[in-house]
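Final report, Chapter 2: Outcomes

The project's central promise was a pipeline that accepts a single protein chain and returns its three-dimensional structure in a standardized token representation, suitable for archiving and comparison. That pipeline is now operational. To close this chapter, we reproduce one record exactly as it appears in the project archive, with the input sequence first and the structure output second.
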Amino acid sequence: MTPEQSSEFRALLETTRDELSASLEATADEAAPVSPDSSIGRLTRQDAMQAQQMALALRRRNQVRLRQIEAALERLARGEYGVCLRCEEEIALARLRVHPEAPFCVKCAEWR
């Protein structure tokens, strides 16, 4: 991987990390438990609980992806970014542009 490509992927990973962090902060209130003491109707409470569960699921996905991005940034700092953790072959640049935190090449990701 060239230094220019490393810079490109660092910028992409950092931008995605910042967006995910902002999303996690913004959805903190949406994921809060629905209070049984609030004076809303039964259907409204069910809607609120469903929205809360959807927000929790989104937050979990974002937290996992954020950890993957942090790990990719660590690999980049060590000079190991873009190398499959399983077969140690280079990960295709096209894959990294779509999924920059990818730790595996397509072949190993499918096998997993």
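Archive annotation: The helical segments are 3-26, 42-78, 93-98, 106-111.
This record, like all others produced under the grant, will remain available to the consortium after the project formally closes.
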